[in-house]
Amino acid sequence: MFLITLTEKGGESEQLTFEKEEVTIGRLAGNDIVLNKGNVSKYHSRIVLKDGKYIVVDLKSTNGTFVNGKKIGAPQVVRPSDKIYVGDYIINVEAPEEGAEEGGDETGYAPDDEEEQPQDEEYEEDAAEDEEPQDEEPQEDEEYEEEEEAPEEKKNMPASLAAALRKNRKHIDPRLEAYANLQKDIHDRLIEYLDLRRLDMDRLGDEELWRRTEKAIRDIVDQMEADQEIPEDIDREMLLTDVLNEALGLGPLEAFLADDEISEIMVNHANQLYIEKKGKLILSDKIFSSNQAVLGVIERIVAPIGRRIDESSPMVDARLKDGSRVNAIIPPLALKGPCITIRKFKRDALAIEDLIKYKTVTPMMAEFIEMCVKAKRNIVISGGTGSGKTTTLNVVSSFIPEDERIITVEDAAELQLRQEHWVQLESRPPNLEGKGAITIRDLVKNCLRMRPERIVVGECRSGEALDMLQAMNTGHDGSLTTLHANTPRDALARMETLVLMAGMDLPVKAIREQIASAVHMIIQQTRFNDGSRRIAYITEISGMEVDIITLQDIFYFKQEGFTEDGRVRGRYVATGFVPKFYDELQRRGVPVNMGIFREE
Fold first, then answer.
1. Which residues pair with 71 in a beta bridge?
2. DSSP 417-452
3. Beta-strand relationship, 521-527 and 379-383
């Protein structure tokens, strides 16, 4: 709603009331306010009410739009005390109830007062501050609350959610909050700026869209600097970059994704971002301007790969262009706001030499793993969350000979194989009607018809474990997969559970016999307290004794304490046990290094 005071130079003042959220000003009859003067363009300017603020925007007029004597080049927030100049007219805008309280506009807008404009402006600004202090402060609070939850919705929200929101606000650094509010203000003006120019975003290429948006933000920031709306201690270029990234990119995540030392990014909610750097969790000083901005980033991640996230489907797994894995979950499941977890992967896939350098394995263990792959042993890589299973799977897969056909099956494609003869399959979630889902299990069954020589499943987490075991038992030796477990023995129990999830009513002994005959090796990946990741065990499944699967460790990591700086200290130990297939290789005349099994 608008109360507009319109004054023509040398003429009378009149007040106009509009029951709408935007008013257009120009020379043609189609405008809300028609100013039939030659120095007014056909469509000169526009005033918009948004989030309790009045914003004036010039519509590329010939003579320009001025606020308090300064020409504007971008959308600008105006107060009741500000004077908007359009041709020979002066315009003031305010809410109708404010105009009623003040009894009309008799103090500052008469044309004969123009000569003393600076004095009047100063008087009016002081008066506005004296008379309306309660209106300005609540406006900021109202805006902040709107970002989290509409006031009328707060009455019915669960107590746990209300408490979570209060806690979020309590721990926000005031400087970060002020910076976020500044970003949001610029972003709101940017939306208005681009909308007014009626840009067809869908037809613009990526480079042109980024170029035009950057120019628009620069115009807005220039205008705000001219109006002293940006604090002097703000880095202008950083502010511009942050707004641009939030408008078109992934917001503050862009800087983290570009930092090769960061391995994981965790957005708990708009005001709390953690990163993992060199194995340590660090609270970032970057935040999003609002939860809506986080939702926008999630949408930009999932939309290009055909995934969706909304209230009916509030969780999603996705990937970035570089192969990084993304999980997102939004309200009502995430109480504090939209949550994003990104597991980054290096642009250049790690090689076995890198794992040796990082002391994840020893050269002897690396030689043994390479021999296992080339001898077509079926290998399961187990480990906890974030222990490095997928990285190890990538390295282990690199030992597969170039002339073999590899088919990979994943929920979200993230494997980085180097071989040329590689077919990559990815599961598909259901559509809006809940139909059309293609599961990992469906893909594992299908890849058996694709003449695979190696099947690599990114992770077994359900009934596909049964299909994987059957594939291993029916001539597809050399298959690889990962699963979540903390020890090799736990990995066996986990596999039993996953097979039962396939819905087959099989006796436990039959399942264990399947596992014992199908899986040859377990590589146990562990993340230690200092953030280091190591292969803790390389274990052979040696057979069955009555109803129990027998295991034999070949290598293991023996922890011996901590260094002065808190790093894990220990050494790798060879147990001296020689796996069965090495004896077979020797009998077939294949050269093998038996020295790797001697304990040093």
1. 66
2. ---SSEEEEE-B---TTS---B-HHHHHHHHTTS--
3. parallel
- What does the angle CA 306 – CA 311 – CA 315 come to, to the nearest 5 degrees? 55
Sorted by sequence, the CB contacts under 8 Å of residue 244 that are 6+ apart come out as: 210, 213, 214, 217
Start-to-end CA span in the chain (Å): 83
* DSSP, residue by residue, 205-243: -HHHHHHHHHHHHHHHHHHHHHTT-S-TTS-HHHHHHHH
Residue range 437-458, pLDDT digits in tens:
898 899 998 988 899 999 999 8
Which is nearest to 389 in space by CA: 482, 457, 528, 275?
482
Rounded to whole angstroms, the Cα distance separating 281 from 272 reads: 13
Strands 76-78 and 53-58: antiparallel
Residue position matching structure tokens 């996705």: 318
Which pLDDT tens digit goes with each residue over 465-492? 998 898 888 888 999 999 999 999 999 9
pLDDT at 332 over 70: yes
Contact of 411 with 441, CB cutoff 8 Å = no
Structure-block tokens of residue 31: 């405008």
417: which 2 tokens?
Answer: 């194989």
> Measured between alpha carbons, how far is residue 317 from residues 256, 302, 320, 353, 415 in Å?
20, 8, 11, 31, 15
pLDDT in tens, 314-331: 888 888 877 788 999 998
What distance in Å separates the CA atoms of residue 136 and residue 152, rounded to the nearest whole number?
Answer: 21
**What are the backbone angles phi and psi of residue 467, rounded to the nearest 5°?**
-65, -35
Q: Which residues contact 77 (CB under 8 A, 6 or more apart)?
A: 53, 54, 55, 185, 189, 229
**DSSP assignment, residue 579?**
P
Block residue for tokens 């010039």:
58
Helix axes 133-148, 174-196, angle to 10 degrees: 80
The confidence score (pLDDT) of residue 169 equals 52
Q: Are 296 and 321 in contact (CB under 8 A)?
A: no
For 593, phi then psi, to 5°, come to -95, 100
401 preceded by a cis bond (ω within 30 of 0)? no
Q: What percent of the chain has pLDDT over 90?
A: 28
As beta bridge partners, residue 484 has: 383
Residues whose CB falls within 8 Å of the CB of residue 496, separated by 6 or more in sequence, listed in order? 508, 511, 512, 515
Q: How confident is the model at residue 195 (pLDDT cuts 50, 70, 90)?
A: low
Residue 139 has pLDDT above 70, yes or no: no
